[in-house]
Structure formats: structure tokens, C-alpha cells
Design brief:
It is globular and about 75 Å long. It is mainly α and 403 residues long. Helix 4 runs parallel beside helix 6 (124-143) and helix 9 (168-186) crosses helix 11 (210-238). It has helices at 2-17, 31-50, 56-59, 61-78, 98-115, 124-143, 147-152, 157-162, 168-186, 189-207, 210-238, 241-251, 262-273, 285-288, 300-333, 337-361, 379-398, and strands at 80-82, 85-91, 94-96. It folds into 2 domains: 2-166 and 248-398, no CATH class; 173-238. The chain has 17 helices and 3 strands. A 3-stranded antiparallel beta sheet has the order 1-2-3, covered by helices on one side.
Length: 403
């Protein structure tokens, strides 16, 4: 399944750069030639990982994590800026992005830390330690002005919840906060507060317990009301202009389709024009004439939708879900807590990337600029995800109690 995704991705990258005058698969001056080189080198990396002793991964997890943190700091001083993010080291004609590999390092470090503690028993030591491991690379990536990659690390909350390090109600609080934020942008904040008041009063009436719970309900109502009132300040004063523009594209009908709304508008046209069966490989007009910016990277799913249609898009989504589900299943069966936690971590990363990337190309989620795993053009992305995947294969092949 990994090979299917990788080579299907290469075919779509080839399509985005195809012209009538192309001169072969191995022209490394074109994106499809460079992507083929990335794919071959990723497979070589995978073979080398499978040849390693499985105990290397927990033994060197902290060293790998420290090395990546050092690279994240160094890129702030010596890196180059691409697409407004100083996240890259330039090496000749190639650029490498350390933040992509920080996911692998963080997954190893988190698995090592939690497997050496009784993670199934909740304690503040486990919680704070795990949060620090996740937050440290996030902090450096925020300084690089790469909010998309930063948000990817939030998916590890699923690992902490699965391991009992974070209580389930915190996930519900997080989802409620996101929902309230969006609703406040769509509806007047005082209407939201009035609705919260009605819910609080109705709860007390239905419970018929005015004496024991009214302070808790009142406190919760006040906290939520203050949160709603703060949304306006956060949105207008803390978010950067391009971040506000991406949100407005989704929630506002009055969007400049030749300006901030251009990417998403062209993306929807490309996907919708594919119909059920698609226009056929190399036949997509939106793709061929490069109407969608970043179509070989963040918007690669547009090519899938246009040329392969609804059936091809559905098949791709099914492949991702099966692939991620298989990793979770293997992780659940693992005897080693290290292998289980590491498997959960890479499954969370893959699921977040897959869901957010496809959602943003369809206008369901704000555009945050993250690649589609194994499909998007780029060496750093395919190398990092391949290293994560083959490391899991190696760990799963032994199923030993590593720690």
C-alpha cells in the first residue's frame, strides 16, 4: 500500500509538470524527475532502516531528538526563507526542511518517555513531561513562521489520550473551544452568550438541583462568556493578516476570488470539473495550464480530483484510511509499549496531514499549507514519512519488549 501511494503520487506530480515537449522521466531539472529521485532515495532509506538492529531506535531516541532540536534552532540562524517561512537549509539546488523530520524525532522521544513510565496511570509528571516533549519542537517551528507544521503536532493529543496521559474531557473541551470560536465569527457574540445562558438555565431546571450545582454552572457560564468575548480580540489583534484571510475565505461570501480566494476557488473548480470518472491522466485543463498555485505540493489533491474524478478520489481516501487503520491495528497488538506508542504517533501524524490537506483543498478547512503524505512533491516530506513508516515496520517485525 505504501508503494501504491508513493507511485500514484509520483504520477500526479508528473501530471502537474507535464508539457508536450517533456524529455523523459529522468530529467532532474523538472519536478517529476526530482520527485522520482526522492522516491528512489526514500526506498533506499527504507531498506537501510530495515537492516538496522531494532533496539537502536529506543537507544538513540533522545540523541535523535536533541539533534533535530539543534537543527530547528540552527535553521533560524542559517536557513533560507521559502514561502514566508524560514524553515529550510539550502544545499545546492535542493532544500531540506528539518521540521518535517522533527515529527519522527518527537514520535521516538515520546514513545521512549511514556514507555519508561506507567503511562496507563494518570499522573501530572507524565502529562507535563509528554507535553514538554511535544511543545519544544512546536516552539521552534512557530519561530520559523510555519503555523501549518506547528499544528500537526497537536495531533499527538490523540496519543496522550489513548495512553491515558490526558483525560478524555480535555479533548471535548478543545473541540468545544474550536466550535465556539467559529460560531462567534459567524454569529454576534452576544447571541452566543444568550444561548449559553439559556443552556445553563435549562440544565439547572432539568437537573432540579439548584443548591449543589449552581455555582459550578455559573462558573462555567462565566468562563465560556469571557472566552466568547475574547474571540474578537484574538481574531483582529493576534492573528496575522494572511491567517485572517484564510479564515475569511471559508466563512465569508464577500471574498475576492482574484485575490485571497483565488487558490481555493481554482481548487474547487479543478476537483469539481473532474466529475465522476475524471478527465483522464494528463488531460486536466486546470492542471495542465497551472491555474492552481502550489498544485504539485499542498494542492496535489486537485490533480487527483480533476484527472481521476470522484471514483479515483474516493479510492485514494479509502487507501489512506486502510493504511492508517492497519498501522493502528498493528500498534494495538504490539507487546512493546514503545512500539505501540510510536505506532499511534505516526498514525496520528498521517491522519492529521491526510484530513487537513484534503479538507483545505475542498474548502472545508482553512488553508494551512501542509503536504499530502507520499503524494505531494518534496524530498523532505517523502523522506520523513518514509523514515517514520519503515521504522515502524522494523519495530513491528520483532514485536519485542524493547524497554
Amino acid at each position: 500500500m505504501f508503494l501504491v501511494l508513493v507511485f500514484f503520487g509520483w504520477a500526479n506530480v508528473f501530471s502537474t509538470g507535464f508539457t508536450e515537449t517533456y524529455d523523459g522521466f529522468f530529467n532532474f531539472s523538472l519536478i517529476h524527475g526530482r520527485q522520482l529521485l526522492f522516491v528512489i532515495s526514500a526506498l533506499i532509506l527504507g531498506v537501510l532502516i530495515l537492516m538496522l538492529d531494532v533496539k537502536i531506535f529506543p537507544a538513540f531516541a533522545w540523541l535523535i531528538y536533541a539533534g533535530i532540536i539543534a537543527m530547528l534552532a540552527a535553521v533560524l540562524l542559517f536557513g533560507v526563507e521559502i514561502n514566508n517561512s524560514q524553515s529550510w537549509f539550502r544545499i545546492g539546488s535542493f532544500a531540506i526542511q528539518p521540521s518535517e523530520f522533527s515529527k519522527f524525532a518527537t514520535a521516538l522521544a515520546l514513545a521512549t518517555f511514556l514507555s519508561r513510565t506507567n503511562s496507563k496511570s494518570f499522573s501530572w509528571t507524565n502529562t507535563l513531561g509528554a507535553i514538554f516533549i511535544i511543545a519544544l519542537p512546536m516552539g521552534f517551528i512557530i519561530l520559523q513562521n510555519d503555523m501549518g507544521t506547528t499544528l500537526v503536532f497537536a495531533s499527538l493529543i490523540l496519543v496522550l489520550w489513548r495512553e491515558g496521559v490526558v483525560r478524555g474531557y480535555l479533548l471535548l473541551i478543545g473541540l468545544a473551544a474550536i466550535l465556539l470560536f467559529v460560531l462567534t465569527l459567524l454569529i454576534t457574540q452576544y447571541i452566543i452568550i444568550a444561548a449559553l445562558a439559556v443552556i445553563a438555565i435549562s440544565w439547572m431546571i432539568l437537573r432540579r438541583n439548584y443548591t449543589k450545582e449552581w455555582l459550578q454552572v455559573l462558573g462555567l457560564f462565566l468562563v465560556l462568556s469571557l472566552y466568547v468575548l475574547s474571540v474578537d480580540y484574538v481574531y483582529h489583534d493576534l492573528l496575522q493578516p494572511h491567517q485572517k484571510a484564510r479564515i475569511e475565505v471559508l466563512i465569508s461570501d464577500d471574498v475576492d476570488l482574484k485575490g485571497v480566494g483565488y487558490n481555493l476557488h481554482q481548487s474547487k473548480i479543478a476537483i469539481g470539473s473532474g466529475g465522476f470518472w475524471g478527465k483522464g491522466f494528463l488531460e486536466g485543463t486546470q492542471t495542465k495550464f497551472q491555474f492552481v498555485p502550489e498544485q504539485s505540493t499542498d494542492f496535489i489533491f486537485c490533480t487527483v480530483g480533476e484527472e481521476w474524478g470522484f471514483w479515483g478520489s474516493t479510492l485514494l481516501i479509502a487507501l489512506y484510511l486502510i493504511f492508517i487503520g492497519r498501522i493502528v491495528t498493528l500498534a494495538d497488538r504490539h507487546r512493546s509499549s514503545f512500539g505501540r506508542i510510536y505506532g499511534y504517533a505516526i498514525a496520528s501524524f498521517l491522519f492529521f496531514h491526510f484530513t487537513i490537506n484534503i479538507g483545505m483543498t475542498m474548502g472545508l478547512i482553512p488553508v494551512i499549507g501542509i503536504p499530502l503524505p507520499f503524494l505531494s512533491y518534496g524530498g523532505s516530506s517523502i523522506w520523513a514519512f518514509s523514515v517514520m513508516f519503515f521504522t515502524f515496520l522494523k519495530i513491528d517485525s520483532k514485536r519485542l519488549d524493547l524497554l
